[in-house]
């Protein structure tokens, strides 16, 4: 169960969200704790400065002063109530140093040992300590109390707050973050479940389709599957691939049937004539013997051409096809191709014409160019009925050489043109489906192309275009 993509994908998604949430929470708590600490110090400093200033003024008015007659001032020590100050600030207030008013008691501030801080320096200090009457650690700020004459330090006021007060501010934040994290995790789980179904369902269908194709069943269709983005594109392409594989299987089956028929026909003729020549009394006169031998030679040449086509196709598929470089007189080459099919045209009463408008000489492989032209002519003669018309044209246009083969056969439907240049596809009876495929591959190897124009019922025009 855990090995299924349907389960693993949401778990990985949720694990990433949880990890990101934990890291974000820790960083947020740290930042908030630092912020609260700074805010608490700022508050303590402000309160400490105000309280120290109040006591300093009270000391300056009541300690060491004399009246107009030169007698000691009879003003009493300051009557600030420490409890009232603590209630107003919400913090603890302490005093460090000797008594402010010797012989007259103290004003109610709780005293700390003089060794608690360096109060003699007269500087404001920030520190942490544990008061004698407490068990918790306090965050404190000490502010000196100065006399006006000479600015003498006579002690320090310490304002302190428990560190747990800072943590108490962070605790509600942690609780709220935890609640928000749980809600976010719930929403993320629902989203992960939804996305998992959206993604995994097409993948599972694609997996079933792959298993079907592996078992030899190519009749699948994933084009209408509701798959998002790249998965939808993958389903469409996989469907096309399956259909292509089905076509390839059909083409291979047809090819085997065609090749077996093409091989069996000349072999049957050769075997019959050889048997007649071997058997005594069957072929006795020299003319019949010569005719039989000519038939054997023609059928052997037919076998040789068929085997040569298969080998050429195999070389083209494995990129072991070599192209020579030589000067080729295209007019002379077309004359050779024309002479090869003149006899068949006369025998079938086909109007076979040639139209040489230019005499270009190109740098290419003459034998391969002649092979392409011959394949185009062979295809045209198979498609043309007896008494029809086939034309062979040569022209030069815009730096390219055009060799056109046109017939008035049945034409080629639009939907069949794409498959016509594939191996093992034959547009007419008696063909192996290799000629046009080989012609296209050779033309590409020569740096050219083959264009096709066809109209059903009026014929086709194949045009070999080569660089001049």
Please give a structural write-up.
- The protein has 468 residues and is an alpha+beta fold.
- The chain folds into three domains: 5-168, Beta-Lactamase (2-Layer Sandwich), CATH 3.30.450; 229-317, Helix Hairpins (Orthogonal Bundle); 326-467, 2-Layer Sandwich (Heat Shock Protein 90), CATH 3.30.565.
- The protein contains nine helices and twelve strands.
- The chain has a five-stranded mixed beta sheet with strand order 2-1-5-4-3.
- Strand 4 (138-146) and strand 5 (153-162) form a beta hairpin.
- The two termini are 66 Å apart.
- The model has no long low-confidence stretch (mean pLDDT 78).
Please provide a brief summary of the model.
This protein has 468 residues and is of the alpha+beta class.
Topology order in helix (H) and strand (E) letters: HHEEEEEHHHEHEEHEEHHEE
- The percentage helix is 40-55%
Specify the number of helices. Answer: 9
- Main sheet properties: 5 strands, mixed
Outline type: rod-shaped
How many discrete domains? 3
Distance between the termini: 66 Å
Query: How many beta strands in the DSSP annotation?
Result: 12
Strand content: 15-25%
User: Overall mean pLDDT score?
Assistant: 78
The CATH topology annotation of the largest domain reads as: Beta-Lactamase
Strand order in space, largest sheet: 2-1-5-4-3
Contiguous uncertain segments of 5+ residues: none
- CATH domain class of the largest domain: Alpha Beta
Q: For the CA atoms, what is the radius of gyration?
A: 52 Å
CATH-defined architecture of the largest domain? 2-Layer Sandwich
The structural class is alpha+beta
């Amino acid at each position: 169960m855990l090995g299924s993509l349907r389960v693993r994908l949401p778990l990985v998604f949720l694990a990433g969200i949880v990890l990101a949430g934990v890291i974000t929470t820790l960083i947020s708590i740290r930042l908030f704790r630092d912020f609260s600490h700074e805010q608490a110090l700022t508050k303590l400093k402000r309160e400490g400065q105000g309280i120290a200033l109040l006591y300093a003024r009270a000391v300056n008015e009541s300690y060491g002063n004399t009246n107009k007659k030169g007698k000691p001032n009879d003003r009493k020590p300051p009557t600030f109530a420490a409890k009232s100050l603590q209630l107003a600030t919400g913090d603890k207030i302490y005093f460090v140093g000797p008594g402010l008013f010797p012989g007259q008691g103290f004003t109610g501030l709780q005293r700390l040992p003089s060794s608690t801080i360096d109060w003699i320096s007269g500087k404001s200090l920030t520190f942490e300590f544990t008061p004698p009457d407490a068990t918790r650690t306090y965050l404190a700020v000490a502010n000196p109390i100065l006399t006006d004459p000479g600015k003498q330090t006579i002690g320090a006021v310490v304002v302190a707050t428990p560190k747990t007060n800072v943590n108490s501010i962070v605790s509600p934040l942690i609780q709220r973050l935890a609640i928000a994290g749980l809600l976010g995790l719930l929403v993320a789980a629902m989203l992960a479940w939804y996305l998992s179904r959206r993604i995994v369902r097409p993948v599972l269908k694609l997996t079933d389709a792959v298993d079907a194709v592996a078992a030899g069943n190519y009749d699948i269709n994933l084009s209408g599957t509701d798959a998002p983005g790249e998965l939808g594109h993958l389903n469409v392409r996989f469907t096309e691939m399956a259909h292509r594989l089905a076509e390839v299987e059909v083409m291979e089956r047809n090819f085997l049937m065609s090749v077996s028929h093409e091989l069996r026909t000349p072999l049957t003729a050769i075997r019959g004539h050889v048997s007649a020549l071997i058997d005594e009394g069957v072929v006795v006169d020299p003319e019949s013997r010569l005719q039989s031998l000519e038939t054997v030679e023609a059928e052997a040449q037919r076998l040789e051409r068929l085997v040569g086509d298969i080998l050429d196709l195999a070389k083209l598929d494995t990129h072991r096809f070599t192209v020579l470089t030589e000067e080729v007189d295209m007019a002379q080459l077309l004359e050779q191709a024309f002479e090869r099919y003149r006899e068949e045209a006369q025998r079938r009463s086909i109007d076979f014409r040639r139209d040489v408008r230019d005499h270009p000489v190109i740098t290419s492989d003459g034998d391969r160019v002649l092979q392409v032209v011959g394949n185009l002519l062979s295809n045209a003669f198979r498609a043309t009925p007896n008494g029809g018309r086939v034309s062979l044209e040569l022209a030069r246009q815009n730096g390219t050489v055009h060799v056109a083969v046109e017939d008035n056969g049945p034409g080629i439907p639009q939907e069949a043109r794409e498959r016509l240049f594939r191996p093992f596809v034959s547009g007419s009876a008696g063909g192996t489906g290799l000629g046009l495929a080989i012609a296209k591959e050779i033309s590409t190897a020569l740096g050219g192309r083959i264009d096709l124009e066809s109209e059903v019922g009026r014929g086709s025009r194949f045009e070999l275009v080569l660089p001049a």
